[in-house]
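Bug #77: duplicate submission created two jobs. Keeping one. Sequence:
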Amino acid sequence: MYSYYNENTILYINGEFKKATAATTDLYGQSLHYGYAVFEGIRAYKTADGTVKIFKAKEHFDRFKRSCELIHMPYPFDNDELVAACYKVLEMNNMEEAYIRPLAFCPPNMTLKAASETHVLICAWEWGAYLGEKLLRVMTSSYQRPNPKAFKIESKTAGLYVNSILASQEAKENGYDEALLLDINGYVAEGPGANLFFEKDGKIFTPPPGNILPGITRATVIELCHELGIPLEEKLFTVDELKTADCVFYCGTAAEVVGWDSLDGHTFAKPWASSLGKVLQQAYKARVLEKEFDRAAVPVA
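Kept job's structure:
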């Protein structure tokens, strides 16, 4: 089992830096019992000039605050202070490249009333690309994304991720690498922890907001498309339409950008190495490392 901390690991909790082994939580907390918590996934990179940078820290903590507000969790925190705490956690743990996990959680309360108080935790660990480096064999899940009228889909709420666990586990039990979830109307939505893009006839497509978590990596890929002159459209589409794509990829902070090998055993027309997905994968890596990106160096058929 992967170890996220050891006896020397330092984390930040409620304004203090403590050893992870000394930090505690209450067994009667609403977050533990009801999934009433909010989290973020953020990455830090050692950039081209040798400095350690947290990628889009402001955007992540803006979403952290917004997620809490959407589910009525108080947010007494100063985001600049939380960003500074992230850098301090990296420094105290001697980390140059890491995955950072802020968590807003609630104190003891066995009722279903909105929280009157919120605690905050920031921890970090070294973590490679979540879905690995190889192309993914994906299956269409029997699980759907929750109805947006039943939940604040754009909130990165802990309890919502039980849906992701179920879908991902189903895929693995069936011999696949990851799942694809549809929305309640049968349109393609997203992965268990990643947004989706596909290429068709020289253009990139992605599902619109509404039934997805509008990811920060997703926003970065859209930015890169605009910068590189790659046509992009947000639209609804079905699994059958997705299977006609030239290539498909997932993206997210944990996964970064990772291409697909197949969907339900169906392979795609264009080799990943010559796809726009590959261009965007390399452009994304250059962006987070603050390197110059030469599109001409990436062959596209």
